[in-house]
Design brief:
Length: about 280
């Protein structure tokens, strides 16, 4: 979680200096990807949405080539042509991130179906998406497909109760997100997404069910976005509201020693400096 935080803080500085693009960070939400992926086998797969950097790093995409991709360098994992919202690194079974909200779900459902019913493995797919994605038609088609085709798919909702600067009363019916899973008859749970231990233990039970039953499961992780939606957009929340939310920061009581923090920060910094010196992607 600390590596994600440090990396994203550094990338944010670069964005503000004009190096990075309009990136979406996971500040405050780190316990969701870290907690869920701690419960995966290395051979399991991940598909994710636009807020992708944490997910890629935690799934094992190597730091240097990941940063290079995000900064548009030729040495990036996708030649510097994809960027944060079309990242692809199948070597680590990080299949893709998706720009269009909700579209990660049908693709993830298809991969999960093929793994179980064509390749006949017992690997599972985890797909991460935001709370607003559950209002998108692609989300519903994907969940319907996964359910009717018995695909081993863990649906992880990072419920930060925001879509950009829009509050959920404008895109969600009252009654809670889990109700959406009831319509498909799939099992579900809701956890404190800022508590990494709670996320991991819920993910373990969920993944057991997904793997053994070859059926989808909906895991809602209630979390808090502490930064802007993306770097080019202001935040309409007041400073007081954001300050209040920092009490839920998953890193607050994570117990990481100062030595370990320094070690991680030095590694991230050396990697970023090395990447900055590399040539930009080019069509030539
Ligand atoms: C189909 C589609 N509509 C609109 C957008 C613009 N957009 C980008 S992110 C976003 C908010 C998504 O909110 P949520 O799914 O809750 O994820 P969060 O950003 O909160 O992590 C929107 C509307 C988009 N990328 N795709
Ligand atoms: Mg959201």
């Amino acid at each position: 979680m600390y590596a994600v935080r440090i990396l994203e803080d550094r990338l944010q500085e670069l964005c503000l200096q004009g190096f990075g693009a309009d990136l979406h960070f996971s500040k405050g939400q780190e316990a969701v990807p870290v907690g869920v992926m701690a419960a995966l086998r290395e051979t399991d797969y991940v598909v994710t949405h636009h807020r992708s950097i944490a997910h890629a790093l935690v799934k094992g995409v190597p730091l240097g080539p990941l940063v290079a991709e995000i900064l548009g360098k030729a040495s990036g994992i996708n030649g510097g042509m994809a960027g944060e919202m079309a990242l692809h690194y199948p070597q680590k079974r990080f299949m893709s991130s998706f720009q269009l909200v909700g579209t990660c779900v049908p693709v993830a459902a298809g991969i999960a179906w093929a793994l179980r019913h064509v390749q006949r493995t017992d690997d599972v797919v985890v797909v991460f998406f935001g709370d607003a994605a559950t209002a998108n038609g692609q989300w519903h088609e994907g969940v319907n497909l996964a359910t009717t085709k018995r695909a081993p798919l863990l649906l992880v909702c990072e419920n930060n109760r925001l879509a950009g600067n829009v509050r959920p009363e404008h895109y969600q019916p009252e009654g809670g997100l889990r109700q959406r899973s009831y319509g498909y008859g799939i099992p579900s749970a809701s956890v404190n997404g800022n508590n990494v231990g709670e996320v991991t233990s819920a993910a373990r039970s969920a993944i057991d069910m997904v793997r053994n039953g070859s059926y989808p499961y909906f895991l809602e992780c209630v979390t808090t976005r502490l930064g802007r939606h993306k770097q080019g957009q202001g935040d309409l929340r007041t400073k007081e509201e954001i300050e209040m939310l920092t009490q839920y920061d998953p890193l607050k009581d994570a117990g990481i020693s100062d030595d370990r923090k320094q070690e991680i920060a030095a590694f991230v910094e050396a990697t970023v400096v090395g990447v900055l010196a590399q040539p930009d992607a080019s069509y030539n």
